Each structure stands twice: as C-alpha cells, then as structure tokens.
Amino acid sequence: MIGIFDSGSGGLSVLREIIRILPKERYIYYADNAFCPYGEKTPGFIQDRGRAITDFLLGEGTDIIVVACNTATAAAISTLRAEYQVKFIGMEPAVKPAALSSESGVIGVLATSGTLKGSKYLNTKGLYEDDVIIEEHVGKGFVELVESGVLDGPIAEATVRESLQPLLDKGADRIVLGCTHYPFLRDVIQRIAGPDVQVIDPAPAVARHLLDVMRTEGLVREDGGPSLPDVRLVASGDPTPSRMLLDKIIKNEIIHA
Ligand code: DGL
C-alpha cells in the first residue's frame, strides 16, 4: 500500500498523477488539515507531524510513503529518512525544466515561504541562477482557497493575481508550481498568465520517480488490483474538503494535461 501525506488537500494533486500510472495500487491519503497550513510552521513542528503521520501510515501497512508536500519535503524528509527504514518519495521544485525551456530567461516560482527558505530549493536554484533569472513569490492565500474548495471565480482570481502578477511583470515565461495545493488553481493561474506562459507542475515527474522506485523495490502489484482507484482518506481535521476533491479526481472531473 502506498501512503501519501500533505498538510491538507494539496497532495491530492500528486495522488491524481500517481493514480494515472499506478491505477491498481491501494492508497492511504493522510490530510493533516488540523495543522494546515504548514507554510509558516517551524521545521521542528513539521518534523514532529511527519513522525506522527509516518507512524500512523506504517501501522496501517504502508510499504512506501510519498511526502506530497513541498514544505514538508523541505523541512522533514531528510530527518524522516534518517529515522525510518521505509522509503520516502519527496517533491522536487521543477526549476530545471523551467530553466531549460525558458525563452525570456526569467522563470517564476510560486511556493510557500518554508519551501523557498529550504536548502533543497536553494541548492536547486543555485544550479540554474547563472543561466536564468529566478523570481519567487509566496502564493499568498492559495492554500486557504483550495482548502475551502474555491478553485475558480472572482475571489480565486484576485488572490492568485496578487502573487502571480509580480512574476509576470518581471518577464517570467515559466511558472513553477512549488506547492502541491497550487495545481488546483491551475486554470486561474494559466488564464491570468496567458497562453505564452507555461505553468509547470512537478507532480507527473514525482509520480514517474515513485514508479521507478517501486519497481526497484519490487513493490508494484503483480495481481489485477481493484478496478477503481482504491484510496482510503484519513484527515486529522474535517475530512470534507479533501473528500470533495478526491471524489472529483476519482470521477476524472479535475483533469490537467
Ligand atoms: N501543499 C503544501 C506544499 O506543497 C503545503 C502548503 C501549506 O500547508 O502551507 O508546500
């Protein structure tokens, strides 16, 4: 069984990509929404949440854990890897594909402040900042929008514009979604950015990496598996927001290329 966690519903954008390539697996998704958002929390706090969630997921029989949260990956994945035997798959900020494909020479990164301050992001950024200008902005209020189920409309548009416009004004032609909640606002982001700007979500690459690791570890199911994605949802707070998004994902109502 594959365990996946996030501070709330954001990691469902990663689960959606994983289900596409591993539809027959069993999943348990843990939304830590009693403690959401993680964005401004200390690394120590997020590490403690990571331990509690890992203990729970292992107790339920999980074979591999996806940290479907950029902030938790930045704050806690190396600690978790040092303390547990189970394999952890984390999020990668998609700076590389953005930097390699940018024509304007300016890329924009939207993420939480925890992610932008983390050494994982800073190291990745360091590899490309001689080649392109990297502009960053916290997606202020984005997580709250997604957690309240507001994925489009005037409020979503005004909130997204406030954080996205500064990146566009600096000439960014690639926008990296550095938080797993943000892909749920992708339609709004793309509409504001316009057709010449490419919005990049690392989730498909993370899903492919998970598949590679599962193959290496011999964890891919050999039997038929369930005919519909088998996802158990657990939340530390009210499960309703994640339940609503998960139902849409399973019914294929939220699809992005
Ligand atoms: N979805 C998360 C991330 O990828 C966390 C957002 C938050 O809780 O602040 O960073």
Task: Characterize the structure shown.
This protein has two domains: 2-91 and 203-255, 3-Layer(aba) Sandwich (Rossmann fold); 95-200, Rossmann fold. The protein is built from eleven helices and nine strands. It has helices at residues 12-21, 43-59, 70-83, 95-101, 113-117, 119-128, 142-147, 154-169, 186-193, 203-217, 240-250, and strands spanning 2-6, 26-31, 64-67, 87-89, 106-111, 133-138, 174-177, 198-200, 230-235. It has a five-stranded parallel β-sheet with strand order 4-3-1-2-9, with helices on both faces. Strands 6-5-7-8 form a four-stranded parallel β-sheet, with helices on both faces. The longest helix has 17 residues, at 43-59. The protein is globular. The model has no long low-confidence stretch (mean pLDDT 94). Bound molecules: D-glutamic acid (DGL). Residues 6-7, 10, 36-39, 69-71, 112, 115, 143, 179-181 line the site of D-glutamic acid (DGL).
In short:
The chain has 257 residues and is an alpha/beta fold. The protein has eleven helices and nine strands.
Question: What's the layout of helices and strands?
Answer:
Elements: E1 2-6, H1 12-21, E2 26-31, H2 43-59, E3 64-67, H3 70-83, E4 87-89, H4 95-101, E5 106-111, H5 113-117, H6 119-128, E6 133-138, H7 142-147, H8 154-169, E7 174-177, H9 186-193, E8 198-200, H10 203-217, E9 230-235, H11 240-250
Parallel strand pairs: 1-2, 1-3, 2-9, 3-4, 5-6, 5-7, 7-8
Helix pairs in contact: 1-10, 2-3, 8-9
The structure holds D-glutamic acid.
